[in-house]
């Protein structure tokens, strides 16, 4: 009996000792993690990017890399400089459905400020409620895009702005007819005179005014901007870790970099769905170069919460799903990697910068909460009074 009792005592002592050791170890790990995050917080919120941990970049990403940070000042082109009067005119035209064939559809129909300056639909509908094939991009921060559209087929906002007017599925109006209609509206004369010095209404002036307005639509500082400016306690521990993962282990920064969170390049992340009903050859449609099959413009991640559903075809409705796909290295179904186009075989080559990331569920959550810090609240924009 005595023997049994002492054995029980020994066992009890061993278990509690082990337990103590283990909880000590866990405690130590937690405190190490806490001090690691505290250190990261201090570095990232220092306001000095030279103190930030080195980003994990692939060799091929390096030539096009610039550090994430604030959006720089907006640059207006020399042949279309900023003026508040031109912006007012541009905003009025942006909201004016008389630029469309039916007199019912304005740019603002698909780029609605209350819907993140896009339409939050998978793909847009336009003239006669016809569906397009691509997801409407937000015009927020489009001043920072070096080419426009998912495939970069327009080189400037001036060039871009005529395209939806003429697009049969969007506004379905000949550009000269559209401008002719505007020129007949008496109330526009004064707006053109203020913006351009005289009453003449031309296609060039219409497109320049719209482009100037679009350039002025810029995000205000986000939670991320304030955090890196020194408001160190604004981010939760998870958001700090998310920012760090974005720049390191998850390697999002290879493509989504600069203050715009895009390097403005074209990349293939395995979304072209070749040989399916949704096949989209992307950049290839513009350049006709086989290596551009399935490439799309790297989109900005600013305001991402407001601009869903995501990707060129709007098929993703969850940011978690997107991060999970990246985590798996963007597997692309074998049968969707090739297609026959105009008699030639085209092959989709996914970027070598995508690979298994080995992120834990916690890390996936942290990346997502960080992405959310790049968005700001919807601002109330009062629509202009349309001239008669
Ligand atoms: C019927 C809906 C619809 C209308 C109307 C419309 N857009 Fe768009 N917009 C889209 C879609 C869809 C895309 C993406 C198309 C693509 O990439 O092929 C887009 C893309 C853009 C982009 C590119 C943004 C970027 O980051 O590259 C700009 C700028 C833009 N539209 C401005 C305008 C202007 C200006 C008008 C009015 C003259 C207009 N849109 C009318 C649906 C529309
Ligand atoms: C190789 C370059 C590359 C890397 C690396 C990369 N992306 Fe992307 N990302 C893209 C391209 C290109 C698209 C657009 C593809 C499309 O529309 O089909 C995109 C789209 C997105 C979108 C949807 C944006 C929208 O407006 O629809 C999100 C969100 C996103 N990426 C997040 C991430 C995250 C998070 C990481 C890191 C885990 C990451 N990306 C890594 C190139 C990249």
TrEMBL record:
PROSITE patterns: CYTC
Keyword Electron transport: yes
Cofactor(s), names only, from the UniProt record: heme
Keyword flag S-adenosyl-L-methionine: no
A Pfam cross-reference name: CCP_MauG
Cofactor: binding details: Binds 2 heme groups.
Domain named Cytochrome c: residues: 237-375
Maturation and modification: Binds 2 heme groups per subunit.
Binding site for heme c 2: 252, 255-256
Any one cellular-component term (Gene Ontology): periplasmic space
Subcellular location: Periplasm
Keywords: Electron transport, Heme, Iron, Metal-binding, Oxidoreductase, Periplasm, Peroxidase, Signal, Transport
PANTHER family: BLL6722 PROTEIN, CYTOCHROME C PEROXIDASE-RELATED
Designated name of the protein: Methylamine utilization protein MauG
Species the sequence originates in: Chryseobacterium geocarposphaerae
